[in-house]
């Protein structure tokens, strides 16, 4: 009987961790995302692959790996999949300078127990380390422009990105091959 109670207690830990209210003190701006709530908490910036599998890279992979927030209050690994920019480019560029450091983040937490996988998804808006003033998490486009100086022109970054354009040239806009892409365009626009 005791082992069943211990097992039940272990199952309750994730539920209790996601039920915590981290909205106190948050100044996060709403994005009107489904199931969002403001959330400000202390966490350590970690390499998610390292945390989950033990396969660790120096300096959190130098931007080649997805980063996470290991929340101090309950040890939950939070997935920061968006920064404070209007696009959904991700938050790695903004979090990488804080690899392995304890930070205070403020943003929006997505929690919906009725949708599988919609838990501990985070949109980080500001990051502060060591009591410093918070910095806005909006560096992705600046980093992209610095890495792609020859991708000038009009329009959003993804219309000019060499990697995106190479994939489209290889497999079409739909990703199903150039022949299917052309047939689709012909049917749609003619």
Automatic annotation (TrEMBL):
The keyword Signal applies. It comes from the Bacteria. Residues 1-19 form the signal peptide. Keywords: Signal. This is Uncharacterized protein.
């Amino acid at each position: 009987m005791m082992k069943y109670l211990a097992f039940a207690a272990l199952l309750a830990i994730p539920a209790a961790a996601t039920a915590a209210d981290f909205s106190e003190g948050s100044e996060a701006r709403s994005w009107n995302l489904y199931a969002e709530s403001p959330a400000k908490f202390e966490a350590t910036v970690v390499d998610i692959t390292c945390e989950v599998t033990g396969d660790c890279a120096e300096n959190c992979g130098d931007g080649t790996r997805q980063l996470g927030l290991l929340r101090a209050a309950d040890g939950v690994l939070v997935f920061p999949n968006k920064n404070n920019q209007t696009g959904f480019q991700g938050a790695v560029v903004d979090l990488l300078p804080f690899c392995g450091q304890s930070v205070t983040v403020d943003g929006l937490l997505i929690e919906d127990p009725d949708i599988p996988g919609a838990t501990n998804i985070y949109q980080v808006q500001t990051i502060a380390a060591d009591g410093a003033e918070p910095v806005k998490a909006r560096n992705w486009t600046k980093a992209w422009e610095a890495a792609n100086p020859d991708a000038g022109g009009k329009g959003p970054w993804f219309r000019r990105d060499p990697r995106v354009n190479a994939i489209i040239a290889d497999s079409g806009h739909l990703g199903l091959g150039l022949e299917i892409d052309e047939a689709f365009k012909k049917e749609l626009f003619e």
